[in-house]
Amino acid sequence: MGSCMESCSGGLSRVKVVEVHKMASSVQLSREALCDGLDHLALQQLRLMDQLIRYNMMLEERMRSGYFLLSKTRYSMGTSAVSSLQLPSPDSETESLTGVKTSPVVLEDYKGDIMYHRVDISFKDPMTPLPEDKGEESCEESEEKDEQKIRKRMNYSTKQRSLDDENSETEKLSKTPKKSSRKYVNRDPIRWFSPLPQQTLRQAQQDFKSSVSLLAECATVQSKLRTVNKEYRRLQEIKTKLDFEDKEE
Length: 249
Description:
The protein is mainly α and 249 residues long.
């Protein structure tokens, strides 16, 4: 009995030692994974901050160029030609030609379902079609019916050759496509200041459009940077807890 008890106690001690070694190895692996994740996130923070600084510098350059070209346009056209007086009143209905869309995106090059918001800018075509007038369509249809009646009367009074010629002509007319009489209106905001805008005003508009696109890029990078910072703080708290538990042991 004594030998059996000794063998059983020895087996249990071996099992405990193996479990302790497994726990130590798992803690070590989790600690290594935490350190790797923290290093990766720290490098990503540096890259994002550098990218954000470059975007801000480009934005400052574009805005400076746009305001400089706008001042040149005011100097040549007059201060009253390019001012807030040409802007539409708050009561008037104006359609925005710029659309903003945000979509959640998974953080790339990282193991985990971490989301940030990407901001996209879209510019609409300023040439918009006007709604067709139904009254004009009804007038055109009545005119076509009158022309058909006149052709039928002429066919009855003429000979067979004239009938064949007219039939061939009507077939040709029916085959030719009709030109669309739909009208378009230019809703470009640059037309608020001049029907024939100068080149400097057009260049200023392009600079301000690129500034809007850069603002969207800055917003995307800032959202990504906030997400990375939040994940870095979370991993840092886990690591400090593990270090505190090791010190207590």
